[in-house]
Amino acid sequence: MLLQHFSNMLRNDGSMRHLTPLILCAIVLSGCASGPNRSQTGSSQEQAVAEGRRWDGPANALTLFEQAVAAMAAGDATDAELRFKEFLSQYPEYPGAHVNLAIIRARAGDDEAAEGHIVDALIIDPEHAAALNQLGMLLRRQGKFIEAEAAYLKAVTASPDYALAHYNLGVLNELYLQRLDAALQHFERYQEIEGEDRQVTKWIADLRRRLDAQQRTAKVME
């Protein structure tokens, strides 16, 4: 399966070099029941312009794309899906439309169709940050946490200011991998890019408190 091929590539590429061996236990939001609720997110406007990529196609192609994005932002998934498919029928080489279709299908609970669109986007551009972010979200839902991390890390390597991937790395590291220090770093990076977010600020304060408590406990046990 092509998605497994991309997962294997992520496992074997340089984005995994920094990892140290970890014993990961089964986690069901352990240690977070009393804390703020973290949720993963996807953007309704994963478009070329938003990612900082210069649009180099025909002007009417951009118009079609913007119309589809507007329908998606307005919550009309059916119209948006039809418009993105119309766009791709004329301009199949643009991965952003596949990413948006993946987001639409994922929101509808159709991970199989979402997977197909993610794969299509990555075939066109293996370093497409928004597609890699969606790949990470799909792998996380499948319980493949290490592969999900690798996808997010590749997204921020390809586009260092891609805030959503840093946000998702924060969520993944805190809730699923129990790496509070890494979660803190990515939430802080998200804040640097996006500006002040009061909810994320609360999460950062909570993580700092818990890390400080861990350090005090470790000193007592020495």
User: How much helix, percentage-wise, in residues?
Assistant: 55-70%
In what range is the share of β-strand residues?
A: under 5%
What Rg do the Cα atoms give? 19 Å
By CATH reckoning, the class of the largest domain would read Mainly Alpha
Domain count: the total is 2
How many H/I helices?
10
CATH fold topology of the largest domain? Serine Threonine Protein Phosphatase 5, Tetratricopeptide repeat
- In whole angstroms, the N-to-C terminal distance is 49 Å
Write the layout of secondary structure elements.
Layout: H1 2-12, H2 59-73, H3 77-90, H4 95-107, H5 111-124, H6 129-141, H7 145-158, H8 163-176, H9 180-194, H10 198-221
Task: Provide an overview of this structure.
The protein is mainly α. The protein has 2 domains: 1-10 and 44-144, Tetratricopeptide repeat domain (Serine Threonine Protein Phosphatase 5, Tetratricopeptide repeat, Alpha Horseshoe); 161-222, no CATH class. It has helices at 2-12, 59-73, 77-90, 95-107, 111-124, 129-141, 145-158, 163-176, 180-194, 198-221. Helix 4 (95-107) packs antiparallel against helix 5 (111-124).
Observed structural traits:
Serine Threonine Protein Phosphatase 5, Tetratricopeptide repeat; 222 residues; mainly alpha
Short description:
The protein is mainly alpha-helical. 66% of the residues lie in helices and 0% in strands.
